[in-house]
Design a protein that fits this description.
With about 220 residues, this protein is an alpha/beta fold. It has one domain: Ribonuclease H-like superfamily/Ribonuclease H (Nucleotidyltransferase, domain 5). The protein is built from 10 helices and 5 strands; from the N terminus they run ααββαβααββααααα. The chain has a 5-stranded mixed beta sheet with strand order 3-2-1-4-5. The relative contact order is 0.18.
């Protein structure tokens, strides 16, 4: 008797298991065609009330995975620091780009995010063969790219980029915290926590606050 045909749910589970078994499944699609420069790109800092948006681009050597690397939001600060050091040591290329608070206010956060990504990609040692970003396609990104929703958890090079960008931005906000005491930037990283919002009420805004984020978005707790 022949085995019953696999259901769509079974097939989906099988594909998920394959991804979990091989974190480089996405990158191998391009490496197998000789496209070795797969640049994973991600950003950190779209939502905070203060500080820049930071992007990273990571190109991994063929066949190299960073054990434990996944979406930076799923990791502790200590894990991110350790993994960021491993990524910097083992990747072919790791670059960073940022867009300032002034740029965010002048344009908007989506355009500024693309500027940060463009800067990170522009600092790579050579033009990438393929660019993959987390989320939706970005009109202002100068590179042809593929957008993968949830890419920071499912595409290994994007996960690595999310970790590096998060560590960089967190360090920056921690350095700014002593200059602007009371806002809690060393632990809320500029996000709109109750502590941060209370400080804004009592201390007012700093030059590092996004003025366009202190209006309707602030009032709606977005």
């Amino acid at each position: 008797m022949s085995a019953p045909a696999a259901s769509p749910d079974d097939a989906g589970t099988e594909r998920l298991n394959e991804r979990l078994h091989d974190p480089l499944e996405y990158e191998r699609r391009f490496w197998s065609r000789g496209l070795l420069g797969v640049a994973g790109v991600d950003e950190v800092g779209r939502g905070p009330l203060a500080g820049p948006v930071v992007a990273a681009a990571v190109v991994l050597p063929e066949g190299v995975a960073i054990d434990g690397a996944t979406d930076s939001k799923a990791l502790s600060p200590e894990e991110r620091e350790e993994l960021s050091a491993l990524i910097l040591a083992r990747a072919c290329s790791v670059t960073l780009g940022a867009a300032s608070v002034r740029e965010i206010d002048r344009a908007n956060i989506l355009v500024a995010t693309a500027w940060a990504m463009n800067r990170a990609l522009g600092r790579l040692q050579r033009d990438p063969d393929h660019v993959v970003v987390d989320g939706l396609p970005m009109k202002s990104l100068r590179w042809k790219h593929e957008a993968v929703v949830g890419g920071d958890a499912s595409v290994h090079s994007v996960a690595c980029a999310s970790i590096v960008a998060k560590v960089c931005r967190d360090r920056l906000m921690a350095k700014l915290a002593p200059r602007y005491p009371g806002y809690g930037w060393d632990h809320n990283m500029g996000y709109g926590t109750a502590e941060h919002r209370d400080a804004l009420e009592h201390l007012g805004a700093t030059p590092h606050h996004r003025q366009t984020f202190l209006g309707l978005q602030y009032r709606l707790d977005l």
